[in-house]
What we know:
Layout: H1 6-29, H2 33-68, H3 79-111
Helix pairs in contact: 1-2, 1-3, 2-3
Amino acid sequence: MVGLSWRWIALMLVVPPAAALLAAVPLWREKYPIFGNLVGTFIILASALALIMREYAVIDRVTRACLEAGTTCWPQPSAFARYAIYTGVGFVEVFALFLYSLRVERKIRDRDYAPEWR
């Protein structure tokens, strides 16, 4: 097993942030920023964990096949590196979600003040 699953990494880069925003924005607009952040964070990190478990299953299946064939094989890159990619992407997405929530919260807060007081 050589190489990364670029298709799955691309999926991790696109789908969880979009789903997190779709879930968090209505909560942010209802003035529940912390709850919106929690829901978005849960979506992102749960998808990262699901993709890590998928990667584990693939590595385990390939390793078992090698052992049954009487050889040993090691995934390249290592399992840890593969898991670290999904984890790193997930935490960067959570950080971006929090930064975006600050922008949304500021716009909502500024909307409550008259333009001449801003």
